[in-house]
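question for whoever is on the cluster today: can someone run the full assembly for these? two chains, 612 residues total. i dont have access anymore since they changed the login thing
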Amino acid sequence: MLSLIDRRMGIFLAGLFVLTVAVPVGNLALDGQPVPSYIVALLGKYLCYALLAVALDLVWGYCGILSLGHGAFFALGGYAMGMHLMREIGPRGVYANPLLPDFMVFLNWDSLPWYWLGFDMFGFALLMALAVPGLLAFVFGWFAFRSRVTGVYLSIITQAMTYALMLAFFRNEMGFGGYNGLTDFKDVLGFSLQADTTRAGLFVLSALALAAGLLVAKAITSSKLGKVLIAIRDAESRTRFIGYRVEEYKLFVFVVSAMMAGLAGALYVPQVGIINPGEFSPANSIGIVIWVALGGRGTLVGAAMGAIIVGFAQTLFTSWFPELWLFALGGLFVFVTIFLPQGVLGLIESRLGRKPPPAPAPEEASA
Amino acid sequence: MSVQLLLDGVNRSFDGFKAINDLSLTVEKGELRAIIGPNGAGKTTMMDIITGKTRPDTGKVLWNQSVDLTRSDEAGTARLGIGRKFQKPTVFETQTVEDNIALSLKEDRSVWATLFYRRSAEDSARIAELLALVKLDHVAGWMAGDLSHGQKQWLEIGMLLAQDPELLLVDEPAAGMTDAETMRTAELLRQIAGKHTVIVVEHDMDFVRALGCRVTVLHQGHVLAEGSLDHVSANEQVIEVYLGR
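^ ran it for u. tokens below:
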């Protein structure tokens, strides 16, 4: 396990650890609350985005699968958690129905749809937050990778997938709250979601999930399987002729990545207090790609940094010049693509002179 | 001697163009065979059919007299023991020379086995041996993308040997090589033959002469002549379509 922590990973995890300790302490233990509660929630949200970015980097950076639909896996994980939080409201809803969430009462439904069963149990909901995105990725990947759909065509169908899900979730008949989604959550496992301690706890959990996600992704990419993934990214056909079933490898990493995105979504929802079909919007999924490209594709740590940097920038920009944010984001993306092909992480590392050039060739040409 | 590979009455057309036309060919175990022919003679399509990249419209392709290769995909034929080297050298450019060989080593190719793979001392020794054989041991730590064209060709041959295939399909290995490298490659292929079956597709006549093996001449997807290089060179039709251009 220690071998997984190289310099880059070590520095990032150390920084994350400091943050994980300092933020709750600053929020809960110190007088005058130097870290306000809204900052805790904001940071927790960024950490979920960072985990989502790591998930995308795993498939895009290492296996060349440019998914423009990763927001769908994130949103499905979020819905699974949201469904649990809805069930936890119980009779405290506006209509005080002990079994049915408010929106179902409003729609005159008299019983809980079968797919809502079991979500009263936290463990089941958490399992579904991983299993449902994983299953969707498996089915989608099974067909796409076996048919050898690659490159821009694959990107387009992933985009279509998340768009189709968005339209489906908008419909009231689907039973996921339609346009408004799921909201008005009260508590999780008995802890009030409004309490600072609960928020701090969710923040710490998000940090732990990010660290775990990074280490899992690092373990995968440093194994021989990781080398096969890079081989697929760089020369898919060659990899097949060596005897690797490319579709199986793509499927594996796509499913792992989708589950990671689902976990990020499940942690995100209790911190922001709402999940609605807007999370499926194609623009969100493209945003994830921008985070990864900006931070540094194929570096894992860079992807996490990219998500956090863009998250901060978005928060600042949307409060200062709300109408300019999308232009700024687009400009940032163009700038990074042209001037920083290795992303922010690549820039930092080359500035620090830490990236050794591939062993300079001694003049020993073959005789 | 037994038959390693048999093609019988194979046909394949693309949009009405008959790339392979009633092609029949037999290659014995351990044989070194050169396949020559003008551009468009169907050499690459033939390789595609043998390796499962392209399916023939009709005809039989039999491996070791028993396995039907027309039902197998690329990974499947590779696992049966058929290795292929492309005309344009294709190596994993962003990985080290050593890793390129390591990825090609004959091992369990399943996802789980690959995920939990640990390199044994035996594997390390085999990698070192192969690197020495293709004379890339002094650049083992280089990125494969930094190699010269000739070195990439050799690396790809090394990757092929790492798979320990029964049959090697080698497409124009001498393309872009210096004369000295070409001769060394011919020597290497002669060394390999016997233990492995080798089919070489080549344009370069000096190289084919250096191989000193049985030659098959393809023309318009069909076998035009077969025999020693001197024998086929004397064939009227061969001179007309190919040598006498």
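summary bc i know u wont read the tokens: The radius of gyration of chain A is 22 Å. Chain A has one domain: 2-39+58-290.
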